[in-house]
Amino acid sequence: MIKYFVRTTGERTLDSSYSQLEYELLIDSNHQPIESFIQQLEYISEYDAVLIEDDCILCKNFKQRIEDVIANYKDKVINFFTFPLNYFKTRESKTFANNQCTYYPKGLAKMIADNMKLFINESSSYSKIESLALEKMNLLHLQYRPCLVQHNDFQPSLIQKHHIPIPRVTPYFIDYLDELGLDYNNAKNFKEKLRRKMYENFSKCTIK
After folding, report:
1. Is 93 exposed, middle or buried (0-12, 13-18, 19+ CB in 10 A)?
2. Which of 72, 103, 135, 141 could make an S-S bridge to 77, C-beta 3.0–4.6 Å?
């Protein structure tokens, strides 16, 4: 059984799409993003776990879709939102980026957390430290496409307040492909159409 966790500072109202899930909140009330992330990895390691951050929009039929993917790659860490502006097919990599939605097989999250402790002073970004840990472990993870979550961007990060303000939204969100009747295999040819769809959707959102 897969268990879902939502990482938050407790200050943000979650998007209504989270209502698809039963989840446990992991609250970093002290705004210690690296320390709390390591502790949370240790905690969720008891389960096959999906860790989601509080500033996402989940795709339609999220639970079924993500569990179908996990069933095919059950023993791998799977990142469902990474390098958001780049088009690529599902691939393996040691380079970890973005923590919006990640699956961790039971027992593996603690191993990653233990290795992250070795690099805790190497960066102010917990995703960078996680990437260093994966490299040390010689552990490939799966970067999955299309994205099953969208980052609810154009708002400040509350988990890591000093993040660099770069675009963190993706035109390759599966809901956009479905709405436009596009196959992800051909999505590179329709990037501008997908980008227009992305900005159209955000213009309709009330950003909290």
Report:
1. middle
2. 141
CB atoms within 10 A of CB 76: 18
Beta bridge partners of 151: 56
Q: Taking the domains of the chain in order of start, what are their residue ranges? A: 2-151
Task: Tell me the pTM.
Answer: 0.90
Look up residue 184 and give its two tokens.
Answer: 């992800």
Tokens linked to 92: 């393996």
**What does each C-alpha distance from 157 to 133, 163, 196 come to in angstroms?**
24, 7, 24
* Regions in the chain scoring below 50 on pLDDT: 158, 162-166, 206-208
Architecture of the domain made up of 2-151: Alpha-Beta Complex (3.90)
CA-closest candidate to residue 5, choices 82, 96, 75, 109: 109
The single residue listed with the structure tokens 């159209």 is: 200
List the beta bridge partners of residue 48: 2
Under DSSP, the state recorded for 59 is P
CA distance 9 to 25: 9
The owner of tokens 């552990």 is 139
Residue 144 contacts residue 62 (beta carbons within 8 Å): no
Radius of gyration of the chain (CA): 16
